[in-house]
Structures are given as C-alpha cells and as structure tokens.
Amino acid sequence: MAQEQAVADTHETILEVRDITVRFGTTTVLDGLNLSVHRGEILGFVGASGSGKSVLLRAILGLVPRVSGTIIMFGKDIDRVSDAERVKIDMRQGVLFQHGALFSGLTVLENIQVPMREYVRLPKRLMDELALLKLELVGLPRNAAHKYPSELSGGMIKRAALARALSLDPDIVFLDEPTSGLDPIGAAEFDELVAQMRDTMGLTVYMVTHDLDSLLSVCDRIAVLGNKKILVEGTVDDMMASEEPWVKAYFRGKRARAVVRRVPERTS
Ligand SMILES: Nc1ncnc2c1ncn2[C@@H]1O[C@H](COP(=O)(O)OP(=O)(O)OP(=O)(O)O)[C@@H](O)[C@H]1O
Question: Ligand 1 — pocket residues by CB below 6 A?
Fold first, then answer.
C-alpha cells in the first residue's frame, strides 16, 4: 500500500499549463503551449535564447498576462480561486530569479525572511531560528547570516536565494538559470543540493537552464521550448533519440558530446 502510494505520488500533477498563449503587442511569444510538472521531479526547461522560457515562467507566476489558456496549480485553476486561496497557492511555491535577485540593502538572514514577513506573522526570534535553519539547509555557514549580498561569492548568492525560495517550505520551486555564472564545480554542487532536496524533502523543481551538465545529471525530465510551444518532452534518453533539429544539435552536438563523456552514468 505504501509503495502504491509512493508510485501514485510521483505521478501527481502539481502544475498543469493548458493551451496558453502570450503576446506582446503583435508579437506572439507562446502559442497554445501545454506542459505538466509532476510531484517530486526535477523538470529541466531548455530552449534557444529568446524562445520564451522566462516569459512562460512569469506567466505561470502570474507576472505576465496571458491572452488565453489555463494554469492549474495544485489542482486549482489559478484564475478561479479566491484571493485567500491564491495566497495559499503562492505560499506553496518558491522562486529563484535569474542572478539571485537578493535585496542588496538586506542581510542574508533578512532576505530569507522576506517571504515570512510577507505571508506569515511570526515573532522575530522564531523567524531568526527558521531562517538560520534554511541557511544550514543550503550549506551556507552561520556567519553568512549577517552579511550583505555584495559580500558574498556568486555561489553563495545562489544558495542564499535558494534559501529564500525555500523560506515557507514550498512544494515546488522555480529556478531561473540557477547555475549561470557559477564555475563548473560550484554549478555541480548546486545541482547536487537541488537533487538532495528532491530526494529528502520530495521537493518539485522547475528549472530553466542552459546548463547541459544540469540537464544531463539531475533532471528527471526535460522540456524543450521552440516555435512558441513545447517541441519535445521526456527523459535524457528521449532527448538523445530526438531527430528534432534544435534538440539534436543541442543534445548531440560537439559540446554535448564532451559533457556526455563527463556524465556517462545518466546518459548511457
Ligand atoms: N515585457 C516584454 N515586452 C515585450 N517583449 C517581451 C517582454 N518580455 C519578453 N519579451 C520578448 O519575449 C521573447 C522571449 O523572451 P524570454 O526572456 O522569455 O526568452 P528566454 O527564452 O528566457 O531567453 P534567454 O534564454 O536568453 O533568457 C523575446 O523576444 C523578448 O524580447
């Protein structure tokens, strides 16, 4: 029974994007796009520069208006929920925007506490304790708590931003290019951290990335955006087998072959 439950959970659709279209003026960026994200998976989201990955992420988060289409989050149509239900949905999702986007005038601890201050009322001492736990969770030393973003390395900024995204113990986190700007070792460590959270906390991860290492080593599924829609969706093996020209060039091009040699266990 427990095993059946576990299997059922892995197929639970936590986010469903149905037939969405986004336009800026006369330019259509997304046209009837469909996508599902399942509980406990890391979905890698890739596509050519300018194909609309950030626009889709912003549309899912309600930051960009849609011309049409439906977004079902945790089984609820986000256009049809009450304000109170919408707040509950927002609390169950964390976001790490590109470049970390920490508030420069706040310390790391204060940055982690931003969602707590926005959504829940807690005594300061409890917020400090919770924020320190998040700091530990993402592998930052305690003495980073009172530093400002300008005093952190690129890798520390990403971890602090992840800690902030995890502030309210969300079910799903959206990561926009989380490893961009990190050296390969820092990027691999960040990927490992995210995979660990999936495995230990059952976290669902929607990760926009250009990083082939991330796509090949930690993503359970990959979705490729192109021609305003999802071009191909599936496992690394599906990507490797695809004859779609962009997918083929990306996953079987010269650079990809070099990466595949480094991460053979996921791509054999
Ligand atoms: N607010 C906006 N107003 C008008 N056009 C926009 C707006 N936001 C994005 N676009 C356009 O939508 C298209 C997709 O942009 P988007 O940033 O989503 O691409 P991307 O796939 O995330 O690219 P990259 O990988 O380079 O980050 C681009 O042509 C961009 O110019």
Answer: 24, 29, 47, 49-55
